[in-house]
Amino acid sequence: MSREWAAEAIRLVEADANRSADTHLLPFPLPARWGIDLYLKDESSHPTGSLKHRLARSLFLYALCNGWIGPDTTIVEASSGSTAVSEAYFARMLGLDFIAVMPAATSPEKISLIEFQGGKCHLVADPTAVVATAQRLAADLGGHFMDQFTYAERATDWRGNNNIAESVYAQLALERYPEPAWIVVGAGTGGTSATIGRYTRYRRFATRLAVVDPEGSAFFPAYEKKDWTVSTGRGSRIEGIGRPSVEPSFQPAVVDRMIHVPDAASIAAMRAGSAVLGRRVGGSTGTNLWGAFGLIAEMLREGRGGSVVTLICDGGERYADTYYSDAWVADQGLSITPFFHAVDLFLSTGEWSGGS
Known about the structure:
The chain is of the alpha/beta class.
């Protein structure tokens, strides 16, 4: 493999980071009398529109520095959408072919985004077969399987180097609560929660990490049972988070609390949050907000002030025909009204019913 080609490829990927501004940390309006601040790290402002841009950049650098990618390597990834969009962007930057293996139920908007970035989509009917299919396809093509679910937690430098955790704390430095009580994230690969959990411990912060998990995902039941072989046998309806089995990148020891979030609650919180922010956010952001609202209500009951941070994982324009479609929600057999009322009650009074 050409060292000269690899050096130039690394320069191109690093240059993308160098010319990209950091993502914003947006305040989410809460009543001043609560004495609690909620912030949303807006990862939708990356060049490819999601949190996964960070992951894709790290995965490419990791693979390049390990000598796994050359000038003729076809890149293959197992992805429900956003990681594939970002990896397709970097593959095209390096002049490489890219194939995303994904569940057939992935939103048409995400498929179009992957194709816009020059990638090809290989759809699989069984969501539990996506990884195995990607492995076989990469082997057949003599390509490289990026394997985000294995390498997410090791490809990012969790001690710093402008990772997402370091960025959050730097942006909170002048706020009244610069050390958050909670950071709330979902788990797809588990890489983001691993990075944040490790960083807070390394920097000796008291911040606790909550991981929210949607229906159909193995992370929450496995965490409850302390059984990491748990498998649900089905995929998540909330794209980008949740997995049928516990992935190697998920590091449960750095997680302080797992929160199970019904899919109807994710969609209700997504829509309510979008109304407050004046812009559409994605379904996994709704999952994050639902978890953050419950923790803030708990802080209120206990009379504790402080700050809570979560993520806008991607924009809602990718889900116009799914999460924002009343017809799609009805076809899924979901009733979001009770959860929407729960969010409305919380935002006006601080009381939390959890949708019950």
